[in-house]
Amino acid sequence: MSRTDWEVVIGLEVHAQLNTASKIFSGASTAFGAEPNRQTSAVDIALPGVLPVLNRGAVERAIRFGLAIGAHVAPTSVFARKNYFYPDLPKGYQISQFELPVVQGGEITIRVGEGDKAYEKTVRLTRAHLEEDAGKSLHEDFHGMTGIDLNRAGTPLLEIVSEPDMRSSAEAVAYARALHALVRWIDICDGNMQEGSFRCDANVSVRHKGATAFGTRREIKNLNSFRFLQQAIDYEVQWQIATIEDGGRIQQATVLFDPDSGETRMMRSKEDAHDYRYFPDPDLLPLMISDEWKARVQADMPELPGAMKARFMDEWGLSAYDATTLTASKEVADFYQATVSFSGAGLAKPCANWVMGDLAARLNKAELDVSASPVSPAQLAGLVARIADNTISNAIGKKVFEALWNGEGATADEIIDRQGLKQVTDSGAIEAIIDEVLAANAKSVEEFRAGKEKAFNALVGQAMKASKGKANPAQVNEVLRKKLGG
Amino acid sequence: MINASLVELRRALDARQVSSVELATLFLDRIAALNPQLNAFITVDRDGALTAARAADARIAAGDAGPLTGIPLAHKDVFCTEGVLTTCASKMLSNFVSPYDAHVVSLLKAAGAVSLGKTNMDEFAMGSSNENSFYGPVKNPWDATRVPGGSSGGSAAAVAARLAPIATGTDTGGSVRQPASFCGITGIKPTYGLVSRYGMIAYASSLDQGGAFGASAEDCALLLSAMTGFDERDSTSLERPVEDYAAALAAPAAGRPLEGLRIGLPREFFAEGMADGVRTAVEAALAQYRALGATTVEVSLPNAKLAIPAYYVIAPAECSSNLSRFDGVRYGHRAGEYTDLPDMYGKSRAEGFGAEVKRRILVGTYVLSHGYYDAYYLQAQRLRRLIAEDFKAALAQCDVIAGPTVPNTAWALGEMADDPVQMYLSDIYTIAVNLAGLPGLSHPCGFDAQGLPVGLQLVGDYFSEARLLATTHRFQQATDWHQRRPACAR
Predict the structure, then answer these.
(1) Residue A438 near chain B (CB below 8 Å)
(2) What is the ipTM of this complex?
(3) Residue ranges of domains in chain A
(4) Do A90 and B198 touch (CB under 8 A)?
């Protein structure tokens, strides 16, 4: 049986760290990178007698997420204790939500692939629930011992669980990226994957095409980059298929991905699975969310990517592809909208081209985020406007952009003036240049007359060069044709 | 002075007849003399007490004294006390000096009360005899061969023996009321949520509630008023104004001061199982209540018999999780030698916990396990609701419910050591009250043939602490059971 006879089934569990200033059940700071155990209150280290108090900010972020994905935000949800012993779990249980999560259902639309093969797909969410993070066990630096850093213990997490709706690693990555963009868009998570603010677990199984039952799944834990997510799933899928085709069976298990070898390896089997002995946490009352609270959160909600995309298409005439690209992240969308606010809606399309084209390429080369762009929206809008009004050509525009990037002037106008880049549209001046070019390039003129269209382009190029790029290309074309009697 | 009421002590302090330092010294000296036999205290904080007493004297001199300023008291060793050993009577915490004060402790400190030390208890508040203590059993001041009750046995014995005028306790299934009954003093467990649990080391979170011990309802009222109040650090703390329970006692004592009070007598509590001496004393007390103007009416709590099985699912379930933090990693006992992490956990906990604690952790772990949760834990929660509904129906027919606090009087040390279930059954009258979250009070109402105190329990509706205390106060104005003292305190 060949690889194409198999269908891949993937569901993701994502832990998004909520960007509250303090922890979910204590007042300690959640800032990353402090000295070990300096951001730990009596509650975080689970001293005898301490009690948790729920952080409203964490709940508000969960509500915001629920509303953003069209989910049911439960009027009553319950915190439960997940009991297990581990040194970085100070209470011996994690406070989480089990039977009644705060967010139930919802969906996210993803765009998979590029170009003609691109397609949209809706991934359903099962639930999202609030819970606290554990601390960290530090196995290096302590010879024969383990260090415990509880700074992270009690950091609020939203665990976002999808339905097993994805059918390829590409879909899984597209979903993870869309989710990543969304949590940053609605400002509930900083999305910093290196610092572990957004971590993915992937449940992967395979089945024969056409089968209705799911295959046995294995869960790949703690994938902290989209690249690892893709690699881990791809490896896992080929491993599962090979195992079955070799006559083996998949055992339910939790596995880890080793980026060095590119392989997944078993962490524990189903037999070793903990019995977490969930029960409602008697220290916390059920979480009640009123309609009023939801309405307040809704009122504070920024425009969501879907709505913004539709607006870009309807009001500004962008293509679906452009609108999708420009709403892929809050930062890009913010930059783009700011640019259009300076340029006017009439220039929305050229602004889009610049943001997605030259600006994106330049940022990428410099490894900068759009929010750190040296060229501001106002500067970019000024540049676009000068191209649009024919003050400069598109080619000169690229030069001006580079000059803005390098801080050679405060505005496009200043750079155009100072560097004398203003387009030459004076027909007398252009005719003089062309006469010179024709005189100096008799061979090309002859070739053109003999029917070689290429020779015409060479002459245009010479004319542009002679004008130092400042001649209006359309005018050059027109005058040249006239002079050649074409 | 050792038998003075808090009102009398207040008057003496304010009139400078005695200083707080003198008072603290008096009780510290009594502890030094009597504790070696009674074992009521685990830690005596002489220096801390004298420092606090000097501060209290300064407050009194400055005219800044509240009702408890300068009054000595003792804290059950379940309450965290900053800078003072806080053991929960467990080897597990035998080295634990708390870096913070429990809410109750800080409230009483702020009120100017002078903590003499920390009282003995059943380990992690699990027990009804105070025999489950790493520090050894507490002896009943009335008869040193008998138990003081538990789990707050040290606090009850300390107040009965006048090693402290008042003491704090906690009550999860009767742990204030039962030792109050055994030691012949008054003890109140308020409505769940009235006293903050912050800093009160958890046994069973949904049942644990701080309470007060005193010789009389009046003393309990003064202490309880200072212990209650909303605490934002406890999510189950109730946000309501603090009541002055002592002020509620002030109405003048008329001839029939309880005229109109309907006392409900649960048929099930009087049916069987009660020792003769207990029955006689309780019935005499009820006659006294009638003489004071109250009427008695029979009520029924048909599901009360289910309280013990429900409790012994819910409390162990919660404790199995609450005690997980005692793992030897961050504080508390850690085994001296171990091979790896599971071995460290296993040995530290095996060495650190006593038999009863282990028993309840095992039971709790079992009832929460996959496949058993519905049959045990959920079923117990259903029973809990039925029990609460029973009380609601009964309290629609009466103002307070009365009955014996315990079916018997204090038993001999070691008598039930090999029969935990028999000991569990002795909490039959008190446990249902915790399951319902209602306030309950035990006051002395006589003695059995062996001269051991008998307690009467009053249970009221939610937030009826003032009524329970006032009702008891009327009884105590007309009787002197609460003024009887064991030989060591006469």
Answers:
(1) no
(2) 0.96
(3) 3-294, 305-410, 427-483
(4) no
